[in-house]
Amino acid sequence: MRRFGEERRESETVEMNSxxxxxxxxxxxxGDLRLEKVDIPQPxxxxxxxxxxxxxxxxxxxxxxxxxxxxxLSWTARAAAGRGSGGTTELNxxxxxxxxGEERREAETVEMNSxxxxxxxxxxxxGDLRLEKVDIPQPxxxxxxxxxxxxxxxxxxxxxxxxxRIGDFVVDCPMTMGHESSGVVSAVGGGVDHLxxxxxxxxxxxxxxxxxxxxxxxxxxxxxxxxxxxxxPVHGSMSTYFVHDAxxxxxxxxxxxxxxxxxxEPLAVAVHAVQRGRVTAGxxxxxxxxxxxxxxxxxxAKANGASAVVVTDIDDRRLAKAKELGAWGVANxxxxxxxxxxxxxxxxxxxxFDCAEGQAQSVIECSGTEIGARTAIHAxxxxxxxxxxxxGKPEFTLPILEAEIREVDIRGVFRYVNAYPVAVNLLAGGQxxxxxxxxxxxxxxxxxxxxxxxxxxxxxxxxxxxxEL
Length: 469
What we know:
Layout: H1 2-18, E1 21-29, E2 32-39, H2 59-67, E3 69-70, E4 73-74, E5 78-79, E6 89-90, H3 93-113, E7 117-125, E8 128-135, E9 143-152, H4 155-163, E10 165-166, E11 169-170, E12 175-176, E13 180-188, E14 200-203, E15 206-207, H5 213-216, E16 227-228, E17 241-245, E18 249-251, H6 258-262, H7 264-276, E19 284-288, H8 292-303, E20 308-313, H9 316-324, E21 329-332, H10 338-347, E22 360-365, H11 370-379, E23 380-388, H12 400-405, E24 409-412, H13 420-428, E25 438-443, H14 447-453, E26 462-466
Parallel strand pairs: 19-20, 19-22, 20-21, 22-23, 23-24, 25-26
Antiparallel strand pairs: 1-2, 3-4, 5-6, 7-8, 7-12, 9-13, 9-17, 9-26, 10-11, 13-14, 14-18, 15-16
Helix pairs in contact: 7-8, 7-13, 10-11
């Protein structure tokens, strides 16, 4: 009965408002304010209708009333007296022509793709990857369609492939793989004005709700309604076409390649990790783990002003790559307990840093192992910071008293937030070169072989898939 009453009330409200008009204060020109009757607007999806009670007058309102413009924002439209009942709004000629061009381009592009199919790499279960033909998705309002060119394989992709799950995220229905992607805009949805067909873009794979407290507080990576590519049940971007929200697609500078752009996703993780680690100029930094995330963390820490970065791992070939990329020192910690590994890591700074009292100010733990996390706490200087980036077991045993009595801050990292623009600028400005991290390339037709290659040898760092047919 309560639900019936709600539906009846909603129906009555819509019916009541649909035929009524409201009073609005409309500016027609300099000094020309009029009270007019216009139709009451009805809320669309995700919107509410508000009975307005109080409105403050801002000096910008007064400026438009008195001058008709504010800086480069000028009054260019006149609201007709009957605009709520079939009247029209007069737009300036440039705006009308631009909108007409957008509508024509959208119509032509959609028509071109509407009957085609694309190739996608779809995970059906543990070890069951298939190349399939699926319909090409079309962009909606605020979205763009992207002809995907390059996709990196992340260890999370491999984990889903081998185990069918990561924590509570379980692959229980077919899912397209991939989230480290770049490509070329092939169609533009309505309302998108910062991208156009032909633009080369990098795709930030997570789209938050934009409405919750975390989103509004600037930490959208923690949004409980986040839709992240290739995280069940959301499809990924390892396909010949992909549709994504335009405000999470970043136009590339002309000299940044699509291969480099595919590495912007792990680079964004490193940017966020270094920011969470509070790395500043002159700091000593230890990076635990010389995999892809550890190596880009090395690069970002140096770009952020760290005077010296030491990298630890248990494989000499990966440590050699770290040295090649500019690590001040390296330490092979194979077989060492946490305290011994911490001592070895700090010793790798050498005598040149004896004047810098104490241990590393920041330790960025990328291995995702318990021994790595334990070592990080022992290796950090008193008052320093440990950043946990690598994901491993749900629970670790850690030397908490050591952290407490020396005030070592332990901070988590989950993906990234507002890091893509920084990562793009680091590539564009030449502060970071990610090309040496690319060790293997495969065509999408050989994607299964590519997945089997990742983790199959210590010489593998970053594997890229070419999705262009």
